[in-house]
Amino acid sequence: MIGSSVVFRARSWTVLLLGLLTTASPAALAAECSGHPDALGTSRTLVVDPREHPRIGTMQYRETLPLKDHEVVLTFDDGPLPKYSNQVLQILANECIKATFFIIGEQAKANPEGVRKLVAAGHTVGTHSMTHPLTMNRMPIEKAEAEINGGIEWTSAAMTDPSKLAPFFRIPGLMRADGVENYLISRGIQVWSADFPADDWRHVSPDRVYQLAIQRLEAKGKGILLLHDIQARTVAALPKIIRDLKARGYRIVHVVPATADQPATPTTAVEWLLHPPTETTPIARWPQVPNFVFAQTATLPAPGLADLGAETARQPQVLPRKTMAQADIASTLPAPGRDLFAIPEGSIEVLLSTTLSRRAATRLAMAAEAPRAGKDKAGKIRGQRTARGAHPAARHATAPRPTRVATSVKKRA
Ligand SMILES: [Zn+2]
């Protein structure tokens, strides 16, 4: 048991004062960043109480950080790895940006100085397990607890002042499970998912990482960006991401845990929802959890195919199984014009089409107008079944028949 060895003590008053001071204008922020007048800066410090909001990040959970429009929280996982982590630190320092780092215990063990550098630079440091297993959703809970505790032990051991360790945890590969979350929550540790990744662990170009970061942020308007400080492509993409954030009017928010001396920033419950629900917007649009694959990381095992997504079907949080892009596109589709559903007066066919498919309505109209000898009782029943069985959205649509799609696919194959 290591619970008693981890104490999250009060943070210094300097952090609080810095947070109060940094609610200044962008111009003032830039002036505060010594030697870098064009820096993006950190606009404010958000103090959160893990016990009040134990799970955050709309990639998987209902709640996320209570950010205002155009506010961004940067997070970096899997370090510290000196070769890349030091470059990320320098880029953030040049912009006077404070971020949150999720440390792997093995990395802290191998490079404790890297952890101390993060703390010295004023960043928030949470943990990310001991060995980064991508199986925390199906391993015995005792093993999961050992992973969590090992990461906390080695990360806090690397710190000069262990109280600097934030009670924030990100599950490796976001492979969540109720038991894992319940254990973390029972210890007062906040489970951090994210609002969008930039796929910087995949074999993509730095420019692609930049594009995905900005596109996904623009789609949501604010949120927690998931990056990794152990990838060359992230180091290459980060300056461009930051420059673009500034050009687009985004502001960086630094997140720290509440303590006895530093109470949580006052918020309302609805602020912890990315987009507060209204009568006309559905709220259940969580995308599928991505399958994380780690590249160029000698110290971390790549997952086997069997490790990836095997349990996702049992996770109600990730339903429906949509990609993020689809969800985002769906939320921005324009409403169809009224004339699409216009009903010319006096037409039995079109009157029926308000409740039946156009094809079924046509059949009914023809049956009604045909000689009674042609009776089409069976056809009428078939038409109704077709209409009722169809997806509501398909009733007015003119989508191609499934057989046609299959044929065209076969031709291309
Ligand atoms: Zn990770």
TrEMBL record:
Name the source's superkingdom.
Bacteria
PROSITE patterns in the cross-refs:
NODB
- Zinc is among the record's keywords: no
Q: Does the keyword NAD apply?
A: no
Give the region (Disordered) as residue ranges. Answer: 367-413
- Identify the keywords attached in UniProt to this record, alphabetized: Hydrolase, Metal-binding, Signal
InterPro entries of this UniProt entry?
A: Glyco_hydro/deAcase_b/a-brl, NODB_dom, Polysacc_deacetylase_ArnD
Gene3D superfamilies hit by this protein:
Glycoside hydrolase/deacetylase
Alphabetical list of Pfam families matching this protein: Polysacc_deac_1 (PF01522)
Low complexity composition-biased segments? 386-407
Q: Where is the signal peptide?
A: 1-30
Q: Where is the NodB homology domain?
A: 70-253
Q: What does this protein do?
A: Is involved in generating a small heat-stable compound (Nod), an acylated oligomer of N-acetylglucosamine, that stimulates mitosis in various plant protoplasts.
Family the entry assigns = Belongs to the polysaccharide deacetylase family.
This chain's protein is named: Chitooligosaccharide deacetylase
Q: Where does this protein come from, organism-wise? A: Bradyrhizobium zhengyangense
